[in-house]
Hints:
The protein is an all-alpha fold. The chain is built from twelve helices and two strands; from the N terminus they run H-H-H-H-E-E-H-H-H-H-H-H-H-H. The chain has one domain. A two-stranded antiparallel ribbon has the order 1-2. A hairpin with a 4-residue loop joins strand 1 and strand 2.
Amino acid sequence: MLINAIFCFLFAFVVAFIISPIVIFYCKKLKAGQNILHYVEAHKSKQGTPTMGGLIFIIGTVFGSFFAFKENYTFAIMAVVIMLAFGLLGFLDDYIKIKEKHNEGLKVYQKIVGQVGISTIIAFFVYNYVGTSIYIPILQIPVDIGVFIIPLVILVFVSLVNSTNLIDGLDGLCTSVSFFYLLSFVMILGLGLENLNSVLLIETQNLITVCCCLLGALLAFFVYNGYPASVFMGDTGSLAIGGFLSCVAVFTGYELYILLLGLPFVITSLSDIIQVAYYKKTKKRVFLMAPLHHHFEKKGVNENKIVIIYITITILLGVITYSLTSYFGS
């Protein structure tokens, strides 16, 4: 499995790296430029930067996955399909923004309906075919929650998809945090392989291999998305990432690990929720600007430094969680 995973990682990286200039060229030709919100003054220079760049790592992942599967690859196929489904939803949002020349795409209710619709399909798939147990983080103790797995799966998808969308506010931020989050998740999944039956073992191995495809594609995309970004992933990319990461969690019963490994995602969403709720009640703001990374920008922290801090935190969370799981969960 290791050799195949490394090959898929490298193949997806090469595909994504090669097509990046092509995608960027056609995005520019089609005038698919990002419209910057008027109140994000620090980002005025980014006006017109090509968006919908998420197509780069989506295509890289899809091509890499051609070599990823053995037998029993339902989970892996589903993860790729759901990534494409959420990517399509994000693509529609980006397309409307570009066509109408403003930063508002799909209506909020349209996004939610789409997200809940896709999530509900997956929730019933998990309930009927994957199982109803989730693992307690670190201890690796399974707990059967029965039918409650359905609302939990929907909550995971809607929360994580919107979190990856919200954290995509600085050059390379969503790309890098998602990369190290997924890398940590894959390493922790590897710890539990010995406890799986033969069918689930192959399913999970294939899922891990597809994760390596996305890791390779994200790394290639970061070359062009890192500061200063030559291309933005857009909702096409951020929603696709959120959908894929959610699949990996719910297909393995590791939903609760999101709270540990994905703390930057959680804090990003919470900062936005707190800001909106507090402002509606008091007409005052808790943060200078939400989500939290924009608050730091307003405080004068360099954009690149903010991204580095987020990367460092994500890596530390991964190292700590992996170490504790390896020690207590074995």
